[in-house]
């Protein structure tokens, strides 16, 4: 995977050397960000991390994937606010699907906030469909909680994952 060229951007496997930048982008992009330690634990547990960088070296975005039995769980997908709406999310999702297929898993699973239409639109465009809801899954403002929509992309039932 390392060095896959996307015109002016390239993908690499996330390593601990990326984590200061990853955690900085995470703080800019999310109201309830993962800590640096969350990313470190993910890498140490053997999960897949992917970074997307601009040729100048700037970190554009990243994703973290956890294999669970026969499915890949997309734990985090994030694009730096200044780089959003330019295809980076799509490029990372494509790479996540490529890795999942290469690992011969049957599909992908993710959770997303109902209040995040950008992400939902991206996943739907890619062929993910909502399969359920997890009550009070996410922290929200004023100590409230927000449900998660669970979305799934099955490689067995459709050809969408090939995009
Ligand atoms: C969700 C996120 C990853 C999308 O990344 P991105 O690089 O902006 O997405 P892309 O440019 O690849 O967009 C692909 C498609 O997503 C949808 N999309 C992206 N941004 C959108 C926006 N502002 N409004 C509506 N749809 C949007 C569109 O379908 C878009 O295709 P289009 O630009 O041809 O219309 C990015 O907004 C992000 O990191 N948000 C903060 C973190 C987050 O919420 N992550 C998801 C957690 S589940």
Automatic annotation (TrEMBL):
It is found in: Cytoplasm. Keywords: Acyltransferase, Cytoplasm, Transferase. Residues 9-156 form the N-acetyltransferase domain. InterPro entries: AcTrfase_RimI/Ard1 (IPR006464), Acyl_CoA_acyltransferase (IPR016181), GNAT_dom (IPR000182), RimI (IPR043690), YpeA/RimI_acetyltransf (IPR050680). Its EC number is 2.3.1.266. Acetyl-CoA binds at residue 116. Acetylates the N-terminal alanine of ribosomal protein bS18. Belongs to the acetyltransferase family. RimI subfamily. This is [Ribosomal protein bS18]-alanine N-acetyltransferase.
């Amino acid at each position: 995977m390392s060095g896959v060229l996307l015109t002016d951007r390239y993908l690499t496997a996330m390593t601990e050397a990326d984590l200061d930048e990853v955690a900085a982008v995470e703080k800019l992009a999310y109201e309830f960000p993962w800590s640096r330690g969350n990313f470190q634990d993910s890498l140490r547990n053997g999960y897949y991390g992917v970074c997307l960088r601009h040729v100048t070296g700037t970190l554009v975005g990243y994703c973290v994937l956890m294999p669970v039995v026969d499915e890949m769980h997309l734990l985090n997908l994030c694009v730096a606010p200044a780089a959003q709406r330019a295809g980076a999310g799509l490029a990372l999702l494509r790479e996540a699907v490529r890795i999942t297929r290469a690992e011969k898993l049957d599909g992908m699973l993710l959770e997303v906030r109902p209040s995040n239409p950008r992400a939902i639109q991206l996943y739907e465009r890619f062929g993910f469909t909502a399969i359920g809801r997890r009550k009070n899954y996410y922290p929200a403002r004023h100590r409230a909680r927000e449900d998660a929509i669970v979305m799934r992309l099955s490689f067995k039932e459709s050809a969408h994952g090939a995009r």
